[in-house]
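#struct-help
A.M.: can someone run this one for me? Single chain, 342 residues.
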Amino acid sequence: MSQYAIAEGKKQFYIATANLLNLANPSRIYYENAPAYDQKTYQRKLKGLTDLLAKAHADIIAVQEVWDTDALEALAVSLGFERKHVVAPLASNDSASPYTQGHGAQKTPAVGIISRFEQIETTLLEEIAPEAIIDVPDVGPYERFNRPPLLLRVNAFGQPITIITAHLKSKRAYHLRDEDGNLLEDMDDPNIRVRAKLRSLCMRASEAASIRMSIIKRLQHTREPLILLGDMNDVTGSVTTQLMTETGEVNYDKSMRDVALFDAARIQSRYGWMKDVAYTHIYQGMPEVIDQLFVSEEFLPDSKFALGAVERVDYFNDHLKWDYIDRATDHGIIRAKIKIHD
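D.P.: on it. Structure tokens below:
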């Protein structure tokens, strides 16, 4: 149970999302072209992430870019959690893991969730929903998530809440390679570059559509709240992000509130004073919000079905102004304070 809520005698909690920029065990090769962390570098990264996340005082932290649960558990413990509070199946260092056999994430990092609250259900969204499968140019049907989202249901003060964290396909151009990883295309050809970016967009759109279908299944005709958060790799108003949330549909059909998601930053009680400093990433020199947090109708202030409210949303991004070598992560942290009604 939330130590911060206990201190204030209220049913409230902080929830945050953080891309941890390749958190891996020391002496472990995670990408073939990236050096493994030595002990000194590993400890510096852990300390940097701890210092950053400690300021958020979060009770639930959704994380992306995790390679090893040992490293994530070490981070969690340094933040005052227990090892059992960590859920990251695809980065497991447990030799009994059916996913990793204890070797941690392979080829691509995984997502995870750290939560003080009792865990009711853990589900990985591994396969793209059949209705969301599309043919990616020169690749074929996109049928499985590259980085499967994680769904965790928790018991927060007696209220079950579904949390989904995702790390969608990046905008980075997806070039064709052979089985050994050798390029099959000319990266300097501007037309090829456009087609490679189109592939990435198709993949991200398919992932977004599939997540949307999972959300509808969870929300339709129910009163159990849901929170979606993570690294969406595009801005809040983008087609792919809106595909997941369908917030705009509410303007035309109020019944869509039942399954729509709402940007926590826009519905917070104190909206206005933070909007000019909101960014979580700097892409090609431009600040943008690609790490996002959305909530269902049950946290919408004017809903007759409201079970709670988003009191405020904060962005922790000062470290993005530092030199790259001094950053523990290249993403900012977004945190929401949520209060559950008595």
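A.M.: thanks! DSSP finds six helices and 16 strands in the chain.
D.P.: also worth noting: The chain has a mean pLDDT of 89.
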